[in-house]
Amino acid sequence: MSDQNQPPPPPKGGPRIQLQVDDDVAQGMYSNLVLINHTENEFVLDFAFLAPGAPRAKVRARIISSPQHTRRLLTALQKNLEKYEERFGAIDVGEEEEEIIH
């Protein structure tokens, strides 16, 4: 059997996961704000959209995650941001970043 017919090896940590995405979810949801709260056992991420000049933001999605998974998400985001900036250059966030992080 040739190598062309062989599936790629699984990534570190286990077998590949196939995702099933419904059509409405595949369209995505734009968010320009995330509010994060936590307890000892979970993190709650509320992804919202704040229209310019609007006094209220509308929550588009709420994700509830374990501390362990949230740590893995943070690591994955950091690695992907590094790869993005290597390819496209540094992301300018202006002075907003210091104001948002508490």
As a percent range, the share of helical residues equals 25-40%
Rg over CA atoms, rounded to whole Å, is 18 Å
Percent of sequence in beta strands: 15-25%
Order of helices and strands: HEEEHH
Q: Tell me about the largest β-sheet.
A: 3 strands, antiparallel
What's the arrangement of secondary structure elements?
Layout: H1 23-26, E1 33-38, E2 43-49, E3 58-65, H2 67-88, H3 96-100
Key traits:
alpha+beta, 30% helix, 102 residues, 3 helices
Structure write-up:
- The chain has 102 residues and is an alpha+beta fold.
- The protein has a domain at 25-89.
- Helix content is 30%, strand content 21%.
- It has 3 helices and 3 strands.
- The chain has helices at residues 23-26, 67-88, 96-100; strands at 33-38, 43-49, 58-65.
- A 3-stranded antiparallel beta sheet has the order 1-2-3.
- The chain is extended.
- It starts with 22 loop residues before the first helix and ends with a helix.
- The model has no long low-confidence stretch (mean pLDDT 88).
